[in-house]
Amino acid sequence: MKILDRYILKTYLNTFVSIFVIFMFIFVLQGLWLYISELAGKDLDIVTTFKFIFYYSPKLIPLVIPLTVLLASIMVFGNFAENYEFAAMKSTGISLQRAMRSLSVFIVALGFGCFFFANNVIPWGEYNFYNLRRNIAKVKPALAIAEGQFNTIGNINIKVDKKSGERGQFLNNVVIHQKKSFRSGNYTVIIAEKGELKSAEDSNILKLELSDGNFYDELITRDIRKFNKRKPHAQSQFKTYTINIDLGNLKIDVDEKNTDDRYSMQDVSDLNYSIDSLYKKRNKDYEAFSTSLYNRSTYTNLKTSYEATNDTIHDTDILDLFNTKTKVQILGLAFNTATSTSQIIQTNEKTFNAQTSNRNRHIIALHEKYALGFACIILFFVGAPLGALIRKGGIGLPMVIAILLFLTYHFIGIFIKNNAKTDAIDPALGTWLSTLIMLPLSIYLTYRATNDRGLINLDFITVPLKKFFAFKPKSELNTIKNIQSYSYYNKHSIDELIDIVKTQDEFDLDKKPKQIALQHLFDRKITIAELEEKELVVPENIKNAKYYLKDYIDYSKTNLVTFSLGVIFLILHFVFKNNKLPELSEIVKSLSFIAFGMFGLYVIVSSVYYSKFYKSIGQSSKRVNPLLIVLSLPFYPIKHFLLKTRVKEDFHLSCLEQIK
Question: Are 514 and 501 in contact (CB under 8 A)?
Answer without folding.
Answer: yes
